[in-house]
Amino acid sequence: MFNRERWSEILEALSANKLRTALTAFGVAWGIFVLVILLALTNGLRNGVTADFGDFATNSMFMWTQGTSKPYKGLPKGRYFNYKIDDVAAIKSQIPNLKYVSPRNQLGGFRGANNVIRGTKTGAFEIYGDYPEYINQQPMDILQGRFVSYSDINEKRKTCVIGTGVIKGLYDKDEDPIGTYIKINGVNFMVVGTFKMSNSQGNQEEEANTIYIPFTTFGQAFNRGDRVGWMAITAKDNVPITTIKQKVFDLMKSRHKVHPEDDRAIGHFDLAEEFGRINGLFSILSIVGYFVGILVLMSGIIGINNIMLIVVKERTKEIGIRRALGASPWTIKSQILQESLLLTTLSGMIGITFAAFLIWGLNTILDNAGPTENFANPSVSMQVVFTALIILIVSGLAAGFIPATRATKMKPVDALRIE
């Protein structure tokens, strides 16, 4: 029974040899501490690496053209071709379960030749021709003004949205860029918005040095016509892009007379597939964390098992007297199990508490230090804590089972004879 007298006996038994009890408790506390910290560090790595993907739609892929590797329908091997704006419409109409299909064009390059001028200042920046929906695939913080609109697309307006790096390179401090003009490859564009990336899977410095203009304006101003450099394609939330992409490839091969088995002609980067691989890697690391932590914890549990065997041996005469006075085997067994469970649970809670303080300290340091590459917000969920508690309870019962069984198998007469 769980009564005050029973708990007094348990506490007295555990405090009879304080040093031995403390050292045994340390083994369990250290084991659960290691388990929680390993899982927290794994989550910190997961958070840091997946943050590199930023807010970019992780169910997306990029698709571009490459040279053909097979001759087909009288066309030679090594032929190059371009996507057209009609291809975008074909994909949208013929491939189901797609959320966004964004054609894109690019001009210049960060740290390349100077291609943007404002007054006496010049700079080398990435210039992208995009449609309005691209902001849904790569969310960004609009600091002032707006992003490209369909009015810009339909009327081929010479408008642009510039990043914080462009502002820093072309404008004076505290100067408002909205409504001003910049010259891109000799063509004047009015600034209608400024942005910064909230999080990014790419080079943040490069993306801050980026300018977005309407796709149609890009084609007209820079003589690209209806050509498409590449596409950013996002599937609906409940449909993996990985399961759809082959249909998109087959459609493009058919439209551009590419051999159906020519896998080199269409290049692509499946962000969803890459994201899945990373999540799979960290799932494995979590399993390894559990495995290592539980092994360390088991060493502490074995220590408790050994201590409880010693305790039972030391109290053999007491157990014999209690049995002679009519105590049932279950009464003896339950007390031993309760002692083991109490020692294990208290030790584990101490380990969890110290782990929580260490995790809090790490997060405080990271918050003060600012963004850290590939590591962010080490933490564990309540599910992990509950799992750890279940492991402790099961381990405590297991550690006390053998000593408790040995205690109940002792005959009272034999126990009373032991000095």
From TrEMBL:
User: ABC3 transporter permease C-terminal domain: from which residue to which, for each copy?
Assistant: 291-412
Indicate the transmembrane segments per the record: 21-41, 287-312, 341-360, 380-402
> Where in or outside the cell is it found?
Cell membrane
Q: MacB-like periplasmic core domain: from which residue to which, for each copy?
A: 21-248
- Major localisation: membrane
Bilayer topology annotation = Multi-pass membrane protein
Concerning InterPro entries, the annotation shows: ABC3_permease_C, MacB_PCD, Macrolide_Exporter_MacB
Q: Which UniProt keywords apply?
A: Cell membrane, Membrane, Transmembrane, Transmembrane helix
Task: Note the superkingdom of the native organism.
Answer: Bacteria
Homology family: Belongs to the ABC-4 integral membrane protein family.
According to UniProt, the name of this protein is ABC transporter permease
Its lineage opens with: Bacteria, Pseudomonadati, Bacteroidota, Flavobacteriia, Flavobacteriales
